[in-house]
Amino acid sequence: MDPLWDLVRDAYFDLHEKYRLNGTWRPSSPIVLIDKDRASWDEALSRLALNILPPMYQQLEALPELLDSPKLSDSPVAKHELFAEIQSQLEKGLDSLTSIVASFRSPPSSSSVRTDDHHSIEIKGFQCQEVKSRIESLIFKICHTCCIFSILIKTRNDCNYPASTFVDIESAIQAVANACESIHQLIKWITSHEISNILNAWDIQSGEFNKLLFKLTQLIHPISESKEENGESMTSPVKQLSNPEAVELAKSVMPILKLSRLFFKKSATILFNRTPSQLVTNMNSHQLDASVKLAYLTIVDLRSIIAILRQTDNTADASVIAGDITRSIKLMKDRLDDILLLIPLYIIPLLPDLDHPSSPHHPLTWLANWHILFLSTTQKCMCAAETFEHSQPPGEPNQPIVARW
């Protein structure tokens, strides 16, 4: 292998080793707190969105193109110099990112659950923690990308070095895509309204509702296996429930799932399809954290319920099954109720060009009607759980349910 390629390969691997562990980061620039006041915070976010992240996106995106030829040295262009230049620029970018991470003073364990930072002039702990965690995640993804390219550079330029069975051009392209998507999402987060960030977090989870609907439908009556756009199976086959009462219980979950999906989809249209009158709401960090995580936690609850339903044909105690489903339904309902209280207080007042509150087209009218339906379906589901419990012979006391997903 050409000694020059050895140097390039080592440089990429060293970059991976230097930044892959948080405790080893040693930024070269002086640490200046960025969350001490609004001016410092805004300057840091602007520098991140305009000066640091866009060049790193371009550098990462260029890496797979340099691996097009079967042998890098075949190119008349000194590709090793291009690789070396990208590595150098990535190192500068990583140094800047670690410097920003080191510049936070807010303790991560408590900043995202504060309830006293609702005023718009303050720097909210939730925002600080979210930006910090996203930067850290991006750093690790870039390190992973550098490690993959160090291996590929070695295997493509050293005929005596065996090709890796775990690292190929497809894995390199995927690693770059993951890192670039993280950059895109980070820029989007720090430049968007708080309300838009809530929507984006909900939108990311939207596809999961369809997958859960497919799984729940299979429990009630088998359907042909679905294929996604890439031709892969959407889900593995699920055995149909044989217990009639269990089938009725599963059917009672179906409208809850569909209404949950409708809530997040419709909210994007009636609440978030407008530019808010200000960048931030008066929600505190705890409320923002709950709002952003709502779709994800709703999916977790629904996934848990479906996993429990799959155990109804086993010997688990019916009272345990009914109790677990009822608790999950109540937990999901309480979370949604909390957010429904926040929407008219903190989101609706910031949205322009709304119909009069008495109009049937006003967002609160739709939300009120949706809430009535949701309360009705959750009540019916809990009644179905009670019916299932009383229809089954008693099982072993306190027999645990092993939910297999």
From TrEMBL:
Protein name: Uncharacterized protein
Organism: Puccinia coronata f. sp. avenae
